[in-house]
Amino acid sequence: MTHAESPLNYPERQAGRAPRAVPLYTPEERARRDATRWTLVQGILAPLQFLVFLVSLVLVVRYLVSGDGYAAATWSIIAKTGILYLIMVTGAIWEKVVFGQYLFAPAFFWEDVVSFAVIALHSYYLWALLTGSLGPVALMLVALTAYAIYVVNAAQFVLKLRRARLDGGAA
After folding, report:
1. What is the tally of helices (H) and strands (E) in the chain?
2. Model confidence at 164, in pLDDT bands (50, 70, 90)?
3. 135 close to 125: Cβ distance less than 8 angstroms
4. 31 pLDDT above the threshold of 80
5. Taking Cα atoms as reference points, which of 74, 92, 59 lies closest to residue 129?
6. Cα separation of 25 and 143, whole Å?
7. What are the backbone angles phi and psi of residue 103, rounded to the nearest 5°?
8. DSSP state of 85
9. Is residue 85 within 8 Å of residue 118, measured between CB atoms?
10. Taking Cα atoms as reference points, which of 78, 77, 58, 82 lies closest to residue 68?
11. In angstroms, rounded to a whole number, what is the distance separating the alpha carbons of residues 3 and 60?
């Protein structure tokens, strides 16, 4: 965001009125978003990742509560991590096509920041699993922490999707 685009520089803000909302996409960005196949890829991967997350969450909690199903929980976390990496790479490509940069486009800056926290925790889980540096319960707690932040990140994206739809209706 440039200084001129700062919400503090809107005439409405300076005059004491509520600032007008800046659309999430410019008309050119919206056209690129609608034309790229990466939008469809993201639209498929996001709900798939959420489904894998839900199954994995159940398996992780089952293991923590009963001590049963460690292997299933572990494989589900690995699957979730793989889909996370895939959606991050394809999402970066989508961001490049739509906004002209691979990550941290102003419209999705905070979503990308939180995504990196999610990726860091999932990657830490994999590293700890492969090195044996954490025991099974600690590994599952790392996964649950990663999942909690993933839920925050998923909510960020759902809110952005809603905003984009509202912006589209107003256009």
Report:
1. 6, 0
2. confident
3. no
4. yes
5. 74
6. 34
7. -150, 160
8. H
9. no
10. 58
11. 46
